[in-house]
Amino acid sequence: MRIHACIAILLFISACATTEPAVRGPRMANLQRASALPWSDGGRCVVREASQPWPVLVERCYPALDQDRLEFHDTTGRCTVASAGAAAVGLGFCVLAAPEIVVGAVIVLGVVVVAVAIKEELEAYELRHLYPEEAGTSRGTRAAPREVAAERKPKLEPEPAGKDWQPPLPPVPLGRTGRASCEPVPVPHAGEDDAHNECADEFPPNRFPGHDVLVNGKRFDALQVGVRVLWEIKTYQFDTYSDYLRERVIEQQVDEFLEDRKIAEACGYRFVVGVSSEAHKEALLRVDSSLQIVVTGCKR
């Protein structure tokens, strides 16, 4: 049994260490991280909450863990002095919600088989990533070909006469293969968070309604109509989080946004983050004032 536990620890640490959030994005990083844990609900809660920051996902899905197969050890002493907000949900949550898992902190007994719902979501992502034009097939729909999607006119608010057309995007640089690696490719919105997707479509507004946009291997929530601006939309109920969760979420998001901005700027795009509340915006800017943050007011 202890041999199996050691194997599980190595698998869990490996899953966390090999995640590439700058390429896969936080949703896929969370799914990959969660895939190394045993879930009693087949991973359904994880798939539903995967777009949330990892600490929020852990808080909401912690009851769905098969805790008979888990041991938590506060090897750093961090959780012993954690805030009351973290202590209220127990040592296990505090240890598991950490940005990085310390060796020996989480021990999984036995071999973990990836939960069915998580496995399906990861496989669907790989299909979207390799074949973006056929990304919709995993959900029973077919994504529009690039030419059709690019020509489709997005739904916009009425504009003055003579301005009812959208200017084409400036040319994008070509990669070594001759393909436009920075070409914006529309792919179906990841996940089924209707409120988030509606905000991403309507607020910038999105050049490709109903779609995320893939730029140089990174999925963004929206490409703004008529300009080279990529958006990441967050509709979290940030104002309702405990102080402990706020700190963890902001720490994770700032790192995420700086990576996103680097990818966007390398392809000649500006990068903007949309958040639902002024409190969320202020918390992000306190950590890094160089970020461009806009309050969307979108509700969940």
What percentage of the residues does DSSP assign to strands (E)?
Answer: 5-15%
Shape: globular
The total number of structural domains is 2
- Specify the number of helices: 11
Instruction: Give the integer mean of the pLDDT values.
Output: 75
Beginning-to-end CA distance, first to last residue:
44 Å
Main sheet characteristics: 4 strands, mixed
> Taking strands numbered 1, 2, ... along the chain, how are they ordered across the largest sheet?
6-7-8-9
Strand segment tally: 9
SSE ordering: HHHHEHHEHHEHEEEEHEHE
Low-confidence stretches: 1-23, 81-89, 131-167, 169-180
Measured as a percent range, the helix fraction is 25-40%
Structural class: alpha/beta
Radius of gyration: 20 Å
Keywords: Membrane, Signal, Transmembrane, Transmembrane helix
Pfam families: DUF6310
Signal peptide: 1-17
Protein name: DUF6310 domain-containing protein
